[in-house]
Amino acid sequence: MKELIIQFDSLTNNIIIGIFTGILTTALLYLISRMFADWLIPWLRNIKYTGIDVSGVWETKQDFDNSKEYSLLNLKQEADKLSGLWTISITENGSDQNEIKTFNVSGTIEDRFALLISKNTDRRQIGIGTMLIEAVGNGFELKGCETWYSVDNKTIKSDTICFKRKK
Q1: Which among 109, 111, 104 has a CA at the least distance from the CA of 81?
Q2: Which is deepest, 23, 87, 94, 129, by most CB within 10 Å?
Q3: pTM here?
Q4: What are the per-10-residue average pLDDT scores of the chain (167 residues)?
């Protein structure tokens, strides 16, 4: 009977040790994979990328039929990947009040051309758009075209856009 208890205890210990080492190995492999995905791969991509750097704050002013818009585009760049925040201040003609809209921006840049997709940060409102812009001249201007869904007109609209790097 005593031999059976000893065998049972060693079997239980082996099972517990096996479960513990399995959990520990899984956690270690997860941390190593996150280290590669979060640090090593972006670092290698930044070393390999040789294109223009468009990170920073860009501004533009646009006049439309019913309103004027002033916007700031704050871009972050990791190699060819772009992300950021686009804040637009809309003032209706003849009004002193303005409406502020904020969009999350993501996209890519290849050579000097950037393709950006913008989505409204306020999930209660429809807001989506795209931009194809080109870094022109000495890289202090981004010119191109934007398309967006106009909630007022219930149509997809487009217009040219020109951002200048804010100093």
Answers
A1: 109
A2: 129
A3: 0.73
A4: 58 84 93 87 78 93 87 94 95 86 95 95 90 92 94 88 91
